[in-house]
Specification:
This is NAD-dependent epimerase/dehydratase family protein. Keywords: Carbohydrate metabolism, NADP. It holds the Pfam family Epimerase. Helices cover 40% and strands 19% of the residues. It has 11 helices and 12 strands. A 7-stranded parallel sheet has the order 3-2-1-4-5-6-10, with helices on both faces. Helix 1 crosses helix 7, helix 4 runs parallel beside helix 5 and helix 6 packs parallel to helix 8. The radius of gyration is 19 Å and the shape is globular.
Amino acid sequence: MRILVTGAAGFIGSALLCRLLSDVGSGDVTGLDLGDAPPAASGRRLSWIRGGLDDRAVLEQLGATPFDLVFHLASVPGGRAEAEPALGRRVNLDASLDLFQLLAQSRNRPRVVYASSVAVCGTLSEAPVGARTEARPAITYGAHKRMVEIALADHTRRGDLSGIALRLPGIVARPRPVSGFGSAFMSELLHALASGERYVCPVSPAATAWWLSAQAVVDNLMLAGQIDCCGTLQLPALRLSIAEVVAGLARLYGAERSALVTFDPDKGIEAVFGRYPMLDVRAELALGFSHDGSVVELIKNALRT
């Protein structure tokens, strides 16, 4: 099997790359990113392409290999895409469409797993959120993710690709320094209290978010590459308040850790990242997709090195 991972040096991409390379039966892997290959990823089965999908020469290089399985993770994050809309369009939309067209021309109907985002849903109400929730993206990043979901579904309908889009929630714990994400507090809270550091949280103890470890995301990506299912799915995640996460950290690292956090809520951050409703992921759970199981397991998985 010939496998391609775009965004392979990123937070999720590097973890996925290492998982694929540790599986001796997964085949040859090509990683693509703007930077170098992660130090933990090496071996004769790995080929590395340094560059971006918005580079025509890179696309031509990819076109020389008929891939069987593609994990498309590369993107410009939401904050930067909003500040630089031309860059966001070029990478998150145009380059994704070009990649799908290139893969469709290979005529071997590769399996494509696309990392979409809950940002396609836009402003959330109190109603449960699932894959059938009407998409009303409120930022450019979410709009582009939705457009690519539609394009992948159309290629699948035509029989060019076998596509599945997974809407990812908040993934923890991003390595320090955590920056550029409105949801950075989710990772910083875990890092700080686990290390015995004081932390000023920008949302209130009652703020709720969807939490999923990078390890669990990789498990779900691997499953998506294997199952006979196409379409757009919402990944399961734990819906936890900040107070519940702090209590979980205290259970793991000692009751005194809960005293290290103080709260200075930012209304803007809390309105966007601290008012998440329940998830309706019954269909996804039935297919075998999963979350971390409990707040303690989430923390263990998220901080595992």
